[in-house]
Amino acid sequence: MNPCLENKTTFASDMDSTISRIQARIGCKPDFAMQTRIRQIASEWEGGKGSLIGLLQRIQLAFNYVPPISLPIVAERLGLPLGQVCGVATFYGSFSLEPRGRHMVTCCLGTACHVRGGAKIVDEVSDVLAIGPGDTTEDLLFTFETVRCLGACALAPVVVIDGKYYGKSRPRRIRRILQDIRAREEAGVEQAS
Asked: Is 98 contained in some domain?
């Protein structure tokens, strides 16, 4: 069960116990520095109740995901029920409640991509990264996703890596790109934009 849905009216009075429950559910350890930074971001936030999405986006920008411990803090700051905050955080696909990799790899499995070998590319990415779709590498370097359509069917099969589209992709090409990214990361070389 989603830890967010346990209590729809949590406010400041039981904030610490709510944070502890969420952390225990997802198996993460309390991180005082992270909580402090989240509280700082929330306290500096200018918007009111209508700015929930903006505050969640700001938190995700700071951590590359929305740490579940931030949800009760956001609820308190904006004066909203925790269930409402959790509902928004889990409804929109742009928010992630789990740590994400520095590099996003998205493979299309829409009809055009599937017919032109998209599944082979998914298998190749899984092999190179040693994770399946929906997972993140243990070193938090890559997150791998599949989608049903990227809207670039003429370029099928399509892979998007860090926002850059690679059309008419082949497994060997994608393997090389991912290996190059990993090698640059290990060497400490900045990625070209």
From this structure: no
